[in-house]
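Re: the 277-residue chain
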Amino acid sequence: MPEETGQSRTGDGVAARIMDEHAAERSTAPDDPPAPPAPMRRRRRRRRSKRRVVGRVVLVLFVLFVAGAGFAWWRSQQAPDWFAPPDPAAADVAALAEQVEYGIVEEFHRIRSDDAWTLRVRDDQVNAWLATRMPEWVAHEQTIQWPEEFGTPQLRFTPAGIDLAVDVHVGDGTQVLVTRLTPRFERGRLLLDIDKVGLGRLNLPGAVATKTLDLIEQIAPGGVIDPAATHGLLGVLGGNGTVDASIALPDGRRVQLIDMLARDGAVDLTSRTLPPP
């Protein structure tokens, strides 16, 4: 068996030292850092947990916003359940409108004392008149012009107020504009305050309602809606104008409207007949 030489033992020692140095370098390499302390690990886990929670909340809010916007658009395209203007070409509608018009004229011309008296009018009677008689009346008025973009209006009397709905034709589409009005009287004049405004079944915030009349005046391009002709009507509907609440009779008397009380399906008009001055 051959004996080991000194040169062989020296080479083995050098190799052993090199291996020891490599092992020491691997033990102190930066890719194997020491584990952070326990409190730092807990803080990192909490931060990651918070980021996940915030991300989920933002995602949920975004989904709710998209769903809410879609639902609001769908509601704005749906006409109110009660909106169904009568057909002006229907014979029974025309007959009802004529009947209520002559009935009101007869009540106004009665010989009365100066005591207050009340006349009740149903909303189906008013809507029949709006569908068949109002266009002719507006055609002879010099101070009011009904916009061409507006369809046949419809009223609904409720204890909460008077709901007015009308089709508005804009471009190729049509939407139903709904306004709730509350009548009040000041110094013998009638004011109609807007309580709320809606598009279809979507109620708009109060701040939007105040800008509705500006939108109405700008709906028709090219001056189809004459601001001078519609100023009185729009001003009254916006609460910025008033209407004389008295009607002159041919014999010199005047019928002064002093109160309007809306109830389900009807309105009570309380007036006083004043003698000639």
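Residues 1-11, 62-76, 219-239 have pLDDT under 50 and may be disordered.
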